[in-house]
Amino acid sequence: MFEYTWFNDLLSSLDSQDVDKLKTECSKIDVTVKKGILKYLKTCNRNDRHIKKQMDPCLIQQIMIEKTLLLFGSRIKSLTLDSSYDSEILPVLRKNCENLRTIKLELKNYNKKNCYNVFKEMFKLKEIEILNYPRDAGSFKLLKNLPFGVKNLTLIPNDFGLLLSDKFSTIINDLSDRLTSLTIENCVIDKKVFKSIAHCCRLTRLSLEGCHLPENQSSISCLMGLEYVNLSRTINIKNCIFISMALYCTRIKCLKLNYLNSSQLSKCAIQQLSLIRNLEDFSVIGLTHFDNDFTCRLVNLKRLDCQGCDKINDACVKNILRKNYDIEHLNVIGTSVTKHIKNFTINHVKNRQTKMTLFVNDELFDKYFGFANPSPEKHGNVIIASKKL
User: Superkingdom of this entry's organism (predicted)?
Assistant: First the structure.
């Protein structure tokens, strides 16, 4: 329990009388739990009794947190509850934590009877992060009637394939004029939900990593304020997304397109992304369309991850170094670069003030004896490494 920063912050804000009050309440917990377990043992199998004799520490922890929220919930501004807890804590949360600004939930179950209107009266709430989200259709009640001030929403299910359909579309529509950050991972997104996302005009951060996108994809031309986009591992992404991103989302600074199915995408559409002149952090791990024609168009990058892009060779890396003077991180592991690129990088970067790290294959190291991950080599302000540090 005491590993949570929010709990430590709360304790530090309490005076001695409040601390004594909390200790008194928590001292009653062991007795309560013991009575419950003794009652349960009467109905237990004899063979199971030696297992059941120990008090469940998670149950004790849950009751202690419930007591804390009951007494001092109104003082808490940031709250994290992991999978040690279940949804029985949500009604206590709803009644006693009206001043919350940020909440992160990763409960081991989400009983729908406990989920209804949890956040409705938390008018100061700005950020909601829900992990381990269930497939149960009734679980959407957890997101109903969100307060007006919510700007950041994260939804990550407990396994792949949660279908986000009409009900979730309504939730996004209600938040569309104020959401600034939206993260949805490993979900199946239908046409209406995608259209709702595409109209969240205030978004600066969007992550749809691992999502299955609909066949008909709306233009994202309204998302002109985007600065961070993660579309890694998305399924069924269309060329039109990249074209509208290049034309309208020109403020993007960080773009992640890792492990996309290149067979569904045209080289021409991908190359349009070079029009985004504010781009500083670009990740295209495993993207086969990433070649010399693309690298010669990129400028002003600080970080580039093109691990596994087999068309990347020495000429590509030279283009990248020449046109991206301030680059600090370049990952070319699993590409076709040779040992010569090390010396070129060292000589090219030696007069710069900024440091740079180059990630290359193990066999390119001077002291490579056949074992994985040789020690990094330092040459002036250049570090040569075989894996991310």
Answer: Eukaryota
DSSP string, 245-306: HHHH-TT--EEE-TT--GGGS-HHHHHGGGG-TT--EEE-TT-TT-SHHHHTT--S-SEEE-
The terminus-to-terminus CA distance of the chain in angstroms comes to 31
How many distinct structural domains can be found in the chain? 1
The total of other beta-carbon atoms located within 10 Å of residue 282's CB is 23
Helix pair angle (191-198, 166-175), 10° resolution: 10
In a domain, 383, yes or no: yes
Residue 352: inside a domain: yes
Residue in the structure block whose two tokens are 């031309």: 221
CB 346 within 8 A of CB 379: yes
3-class SS at 89?
helix
Segments forming the whole domain that contains residue 360: 281-389
pTM: 0.87
> Which residue in the block uniquely carries the two structure tokens 């009467």?
42
pLDDT tens string 184-240? 999 999 999 999 999 999 999 999 999 999 998 888 999 999 999 999 999 999 999
286: left (phi over 0), alpha (psi -120 to 50) or beta: left
**Cα 38 off chain centre by:** 43
Among candidates 318, 314, 189, 303, which has minimal Cα distance to 254? 303
In a domain, 303, yes or no: yes
225: helix, coil or strand?
coil
In sequence order, what E strands does the chain have? Answer: 78-81, 102-105, 127-133, 152-157, 162-164, 181-184, 187-189, 205-207, 228-230, 254-256, 281-283, 303-305, 329-331, 356-359, 377-379, 382-385
Q: 129 has which bridge partners?
A: 104, 154
Q: For residue range 53-111, list pLDDT tens digits in order.
A: 445 666 667 777 887 888 888 888 888 888 878 888 899 899 999 999 999 998 888 87
CB atoms within 10 A of CB 268: 12
H or E stretch at 125:
none
Phi, psi of 329 (to 5 degrees): -145, 120
